[in-house]
Amino acid sequence: MRALELTLVRHGETAWNAIRRIQGSIDIELNSTGQTQAAAIGQALAQRHLQSHAQGPDQRSRGAERFHRLISSDQTRAAQTAAAIAQATGLALTLDPELRERRYGLFEGQGYDEIETRWPADWARWQARDPAWGPPEGETLGGFNARVCAWLDRIAGAVESSARGAGAPSLESLELNEPLRVIAVTHGGVLDMAFRHAAGLTLDAPRRHQTLNAARNVLRFERGVWNVLVWADTEHLTQPADDL
How far apart are CA 108 and CA 125, in angstroms? Predict the structure, then answer.
């Protein structure tokens, strides 16, 4: 059966990321740092993509990956990051609202200290990672997780269907045993849910995995199982631009 390799990218930094202010469904643009990060992840992924096209399937160097699809949340900070990846790789960009950040209701626009002071009971349930809890007028953790997992199931299901001969024509050009490689640009909360789904972590387990701006994260789906291949890779953000 054909495998799926899903490269997840959190959007570049925004002004509110820098001061730890909750964004959620509020549409925020990248700041100058975020724009630099978006360009860097775009160049890093393009380097892998273009190396793959320049070499035959038997001569591809380590790190060469032919990407087939680019999908992004339609929120501005993600779409701007994805646009930089599209420009660098030449991939067509598709926007998908199912990749939006969790809705934080009345918490949106607030700093973490403000939330703890104004809503102490809600703050405690948030920090306890209660799946049944959601911010006032916001999305519960359980509901948010269900949305992300449904998206993962949908994209994995498309690959499984193709292996049974019912796939979309866009998969027909893949070489034998070549995984379908998809880049998805999204948000920190979505990355958290995706990591937990692939790693088998419960929603209330402490979060020890990072969800860094413009990092490269790779999940693999094969024979009905998700696994984490790469997480929080930021090497491209520390290299001089000329080395990318």
Answer: 17
Across the beta sheet with 4-10, the strand order is 93-95, 69-72, 180-186, 4-10, 216-222, 225-233
pLDDT band at 65 (very low <50, low <70, confident <90, very high): confident
Contact by Cβ (8 Å): 87, 46: no
The answer to whether residues 3 and 180 touch, using CB atoms and an 8 Å cutoff, is yes
Q: Report residue 107 as tokens.
A: 């918490």
CB-count burial class (<10 Å; 0-12, 13-18, 19+) for 238: exposed
**β-bridge pairing 4-10 and 225-233:** unpaired
Sorted by where each starts, the structural domains of the chain and their CATH numbers stand as 4-243 (3.40.50.1240)
24 closest CA partner among 91, 92, 110, 89: 110
Closest CA to 195 of 237, 145, 155, 156: 145
DSSP-assigned letter for residue 11: P
Is residue 8 within 8 A of residue 191, CB to CB? The reply is yes
Residue 58: pLDDT band by 50, 70, 90 thresholds?
low
169 versus 125: the higher-pLDDT residue is 125
Indicate the pLDDT class of residue 130, thresholds 50, 70 and 90.
Answer: very high
pLDDT tier, 36 (very low <50, low <70, confident <90, very high otherwise):
very high
Side chain identity, residue 50: L
Point out the residues that are catalytic.
11, 101
Residue 57 has pLDDT above 60, yes or no: no
Which tokens is 34 given? 């975020």
